[in-house]
Amino acid sequence: FSSGGASTNLLMAPAFISLMQEAHPSLRRIVARASEAGTPVPALSSALAYFDSYRQGRGTSNLIQAQRDFFGA
C-alpha cells in the first residue's frame, strides 16, 4: 500500500480514515449483535477494541494511573 504520506499507522492514511469513519458504526453493530447471540467473533472484537484504543489516545494509561494513585502502588 502506498499513500504517498509518512503515516506510521495504516489507519492514519487518508484513504483509510474516510473508510473507517464510514464503516466503524457497522462494525460496532456487528460485534454487538454477535455478542448478544453468543457468537464469538474474536478478530472483529479485537479490531474494534484496537480502533477504539487508538482513538482514545491516553485514555487507558490515565485509568491505570488513577488506579495506582487510589490503591497506593
How would you portray this structure in words?
This protein is mainly α and 73 residues long. Helices cover 71% and strands 0% of the residues. It is flat, with a radius of gyration of 16 Å. The model has no long low-confidence stretch (mean pLDDT 84).
The number of strands is: 0
**On the 0-100 scale, what is the average pLDDT?**
84
What form results from the Cα inertia axes? flat
Cα-atom Rg, whole angstroms? Answer: 16 Å
Tally of helical runs: 3
Secondary-structure-based class equals: mainly alpha
Total individual domains: 1
Annotate the secondary structure layout.
Elements: H1 14-37, H2 42-56, H3 59-71
List the main descriptive attributes of the protein structure presented here:
73 residues; mainly alpha; 3 helices; flat
Give the gist of this structure.
With 73 residues, the protein is an all-alpha fold. It is built from 3 helices and no strands.
